[in-house]
Specification:
Length: 246
């Protein structure tokens, strides 16, 4: 495995360690769902300290690339390749102030996408949007499926807006916020409320009135932002921006 990963220089920033691990995890050499080697083994392969590997894995968990299961180990997510952020710099990761800023940016982009989609969305796109809404309703108690349907719902709106850059940005931001979205929907009442918000956005889009759509999406983003900020505030301490570890 050492040759597969390749060592990194001592003192390398955590973001660079995370990138090296990410390259290895998505190289095709390990199957999705596989339990990853222990931290000490990864650290030995990279030639660095375990704490740097621990922080890098925490970064990849936030990105939704790996799943850390206490008492069991760390696993490569089956959907990792679909969640890779393609347009945002790795330096955006992790620190709480950056996360707050990212939540705010996401909210405004989602509102812009919805308002634009109000006049460009097709009947076929509305049908697909409804399918994602139904999937959310049918999986209120199955959070992973609920969240996947939630993601597809928002990406469908971005695609309906006809702006590829916007769609890529939103997918990247959602990847960066994924772990917080999951934690923010752990309670049944939060999932139910989120579904109802999406339902109102869908109904607004059916009117094709940009003002109505903007209001529905802004209300959703306001409450979704509150859930995310609450979750970030309750979560573990931020890993830090480009911290180095010998």
């Amino acid at each position: 495995m050492s040759a597969a990963i390749g060592s990194v220089p001592i003192g390398t920033a955590v973001s660079a360690v995370a990138k090296r691990l990410l390259d290895y995890f998505t190289s095709g050499e390990i199957e999705p769902g596989t339990r990853l080697p222990p931290e000490r083994q990864l650290a030995a392969s990279l030639g660095i300290g375990r704490s740097a590997v621990r922080e890098a894995l925490a970064a990849l968990e936030i990105l939704g690339i790996v799943d850390v299961r206490p008492g069991s180990g760390t696993y490569l997510r089956s959907t990792a390749s679909e969640l890779l952020p393609e347009t945002l710099n790795w330096g955006l990761m992790l620190a709480a102030p950056r996360t707050e800023e990212l939540i705010a940016v996401r909210g405004e982009l989602e509102v812009f996408a919805a308002r634009t989609a109000a006049v460009t969305i097709t009947e076929e796109q509305l049908r697909k949007l409804h399918e994602h809404l139904v999937a959310m309703r049918e999986n209120l108690s199955v959070r992973t499926r609920f969240i996947e349907a939630d993601l597809k719902f928002h990406l469908q709106i971005a695609q309906a807006a006809g702006n590829h850059v916007l769609a890529d940005l939103l997918q990247s931001i959602r990847s960066l916020l994924r772990i917080w979205v999951e934690r923010g929907l752990e309670a049944d009442e939060d999932a139910q409320r989120a579904f109802e918000e999406h339902e109102r956005v869908y109904e607004a889009l059916r009117t094709r009135d940009p003002a109505v759509v903007e209001q529905a999406m802004r209300q959703h983003m306001d409450t979704a932002g509150e859930r995310l900020r609450r979750t970030v505030g309750e979560g573990r301490p931020a890993v830090g921006e480009a911290a180095a570890e010998a």
